[in-house]
Each structure stands twice: as C-alpha cells, then as structure tokens.
C-alpha cells in the first residue's frame, strides 16, 4: 500500500482539468444509497463535481460521449457515498496533555488554525459533510467560508455558531472569577426570558448560523454541579423554536434528563442531541412529533475512557459521567425498539476528530443492523440538513462525495474506520493505491 499525497494528486488533477472535468470511477462493488442493492462492476460518472450516472460494466469515456475523462480504478474496492456527521465541534478537541491555560493565552485564530487539522482528519476519515454544533462564531463561520472557497480542505460545514443557553447553563462558562468570565464567556447566545432568547436566535442567525443549537438541559462536560435537568424554560424554548423556524432554521436541543427532553420536544425542536434518559413520555413525543434522536454514543464512551486515565477532570464532571454512562445504552435501545427516528452524530471534539466512524460500530453493537446504522448517516442526516437531494446518495445531480473501503461494511461495519479513498465534489482527497 502506498499513500499518494494529496498535493501531488491534486496537482495532477488540476492540470488534467484544463481539458477534462469528467472522472470515471471503476467500482468493483458500489452501494449507491443506504437502502439500495449492492451492484458489481459499475462505472460511476462524475462531471463538474456532481454525479452524472452509474453505468453497467467498466465503460470508456468515448462510450459515454465524453471527450476525455480521468479514470480511477477502484475495482478491488467497495464504493459508497461520503459519510455525514450531524454533531461535531470542529474548532476544538479534548486534549488532557494540552496547556490548561491555553485558552487564556490564545486568540480565535489559534483555534481556527488548529481546526484545519481537525477538518483534514475528518475528511480523510470519509466524512464529507458535518454539522458543527457549538464553536465560537468568530472561528466557525470563517472556517466554513475557507472550506467553501477551497482555501482549506475539509468536509462541507453546516454551522450553528454559538449555542443558545441561559446564564449559568451548559453553554455558558463556569468556574472562574467574574472578570475572567466577563472577558471570555459567550457573548451572543446567553439569554434569559423569552424576549431575550428571541434576540439571541436573531443575532446568531444574523452572524451566519444555518441551524440553532440550544442547551435545553445541563451537560456532562460543563464544570458545574447544576446537574442534567431542564435549564431553558418552556417559554424560552418555545420562543427560540418559533423565531428560528420563522427564519428558516431548524433547532436542535442538547438534552439529557427525560423531563428536559420532553420539554424540548413539546416546544417543537427538530432533534435531540444525546437524549441520555428515556421514558414513556419522551418516546411518545419523539413519535408524535417525528423529531430525531442524535444519540452521540461515542461521546459517552470517550469521556468514560478519558476519566480512567485523566485525574485532572473536575469532580463535578466525573460525577455526571458516572451518573449518565450506565443509562445511555438502554435509552438508545428503547428508542430503536419503538421506532424513533435516529440520525448520526458523534460529538467529535469530545472524541478525536477522524474517529467519527467508531459511532457506526457502537450503533451496531447496541442493536442496529449495519444497513440501519449506515442509514442514520446517509438517509436520516440529510433530512435534518435539508440536503436530501444533494448528499447521502450517488445519484444523478448529487454532489460527487465518494468514499471506498476494502470490504463491504454491510458485512463488517468496522470497515468504515479504514477508508481507502475519499472524493469530495469530484476532487480526489485521498487514494491508497495497491502496489
Ligand atoms: Zn456537542
């Protein structure tokens, strides 16, 4: 196996593009969509960054009426659409070894520059679209523009910007004297009362958000003993949801306690992140509203692993991890058994960027079939992004976001952790070639 560097490959492609915008991928096996049959010996035609068709057999450019085409040989590979992750924090990554005073010394650009590495790791792992649910506005929106314009290589970003949170809530800053908090706490998203939360949503949308993230309940990784119960009031959440929906933005709620999950669902949110606790009421509300659960199983596993080795984690956080970890699996399985809509999200940033595909293995370990697990990313996630006609499938008109693995992930889901080929919008990002 030999890794062709991105730079040399891109150079080759861009010099070729002067006369050919077309690429033909010869796929030994191809899964065009999560619910499709696996086809063998097919040619995937890519023109100007979009899928132009899938043809039986390995056909030439001339046969397709193309003047010329770049040929990519994946005859020994299993080809499928690029993966989608609905919950990442691309601007940071938990790092127990990092200087604990780093955030006091740095400016936003430090975060953005570090994030270019996280974007690369995520894209190279086969994730071609991500939704960022909580980064500083000054970091995430410039990153989004940089990826869009090709200045930085990374997955397409759909971004929430700052989370909407009450004073002292999970999205606020904790544990320092007031002058420090005044200097560093989030400026836009902290709100109290329905009118003020309406303001927060409007400002965040104005700053560039495509989706609104709220912290409906306490969170595991905030340094406060405020627990995991409801934090935004019913009235605040209703105001947030109405304002966001009127501005054409979906709302997703970080929520752990069952009572908080239920309150968020009653207010009309489109999805729940984590949803660690479940009861009869939450399951009934998920089903009657059609809202999605984004279970982020990997986040729970990663923090549980981290506290075993990192004795610097504050006690308030350790207590909440100990409280939540044992209930997550049962709540997920209940949602699965009862037919709740489930979509794919990892909370990467809590775990390492690039390890996102571990979530698939957990979904399968906890009871999903490999095909169901794939559908959470390729079928359900695009619906929450309002991108069902653009990502998640290899069909005419869709973005040519293409990945390959050595063996079928329908037989062995862990294959998704060893992606051999990545193309985003027709551009080859990674290609391990056999010698
Ligand atoms: Zn998160």
TrEMBL record:
Lineage: Bacteria, Pseudomonadati, Pseudomonadota, Gammaproteobacteria, Alteromonadales
Transmembrane segments: none
Pfam families linked: Amidohydro_1 (PF01979)
Name of the protein: Xaa-Pro dipeptidase
Species name: Pseudoalteromonas ruthenica
Top-level lineage group: Bacteria
Domain Amidohydrolase-related span(s) in chain numbering: 78-428
Molecular function via GO: hydrolase activity, acting on carbon-nitrogen (but not peptide) bonds
Signal peptide interval: 1-20
């Amino acid at each position: 196996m030999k890794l062709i560097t991105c730079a040399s490959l891109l150079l080759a492609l861009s010099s070729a593009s002067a006369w050919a915008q077309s690429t033909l991928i010869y796929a030994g096996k191809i899964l065009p969509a999560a619910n499709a049959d696996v086809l063998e010996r097919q040619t995937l035609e890519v023109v100007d960054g979009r899928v132009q068709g899938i043809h039986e057999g390995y056909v030439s450019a001339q046969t397709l009426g193309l003047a010329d085409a770049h040929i990519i040989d994946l005859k020994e590979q299993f080809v499928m659409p690029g993966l989608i992750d609905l919950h990442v924090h691309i601007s940071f990554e938990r790092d127990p070894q990092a200087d604990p005073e780093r955030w006091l010394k740095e400016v936003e650009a430090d975060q953005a520059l570090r994030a270019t590495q996280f974007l690369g790791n995520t894209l190279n792992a086969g994730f071609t679209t991500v939704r960022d649910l909580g980064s500083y506005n000054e970091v995430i929106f410039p990153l989004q523009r940089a990826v869009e314009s090709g200045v930085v290589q990374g997955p397409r970003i759909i971004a929430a910007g700052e989370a909407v949170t009450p004073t002292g809530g999970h999205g606020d800053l904790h544990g320092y004297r007031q002058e420090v908090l005044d200097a560093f706490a989030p400026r836009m998203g902290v709100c109290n009362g329905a009118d003020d939360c309406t303001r927060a949503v409007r400002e965040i949308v104005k700053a560039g958000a495509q989706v609104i993230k709220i912290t409906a309940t306490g969170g595991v990784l905030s340094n406060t003993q405020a627990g995991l119960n409801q934090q935004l009031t019913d009235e605040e959440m209703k105001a947030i949801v109405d304002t966001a929906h009127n501005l054409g933005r979906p709302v997703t709620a970080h929520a752990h306690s069952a009572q908080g999950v239920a309150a968020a669902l009653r207010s009309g949110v489109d999805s729940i992140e984590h949803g660690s606790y479940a009861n009869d009421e939450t399951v009934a509300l998920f089903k009657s509203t059609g809202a999605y659960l984004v279970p982020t199983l990997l986040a729970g596993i990663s923090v549980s692993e981290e506290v075993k080795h990192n004795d610097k984690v504050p006690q308030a956080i350790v207590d909440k991890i100990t409280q939540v970890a044992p209930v997550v699996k049962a709540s997920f399985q209940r949602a699965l058994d009862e037919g709740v809509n489930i979509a794919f999200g990892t909370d990467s940033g809590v775990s390492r960027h690039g390890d996102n595909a571990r979530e698939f293995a957990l979904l399968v370990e906890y009871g999903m079939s490999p095909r169901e697990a794939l559908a959470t990313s390729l079928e359900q996630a695009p619906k929450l992004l309002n991108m069902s006609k653009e990502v998640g499938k290899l069909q005419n008109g869709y973005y040519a976001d293409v990945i390959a693995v050595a063996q079928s992930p329908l037989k062995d889901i862990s294959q998704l952790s060893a992606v051999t080929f990545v193309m985003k919008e027709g551009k080859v990002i990674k290609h391990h070639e056999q010698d």
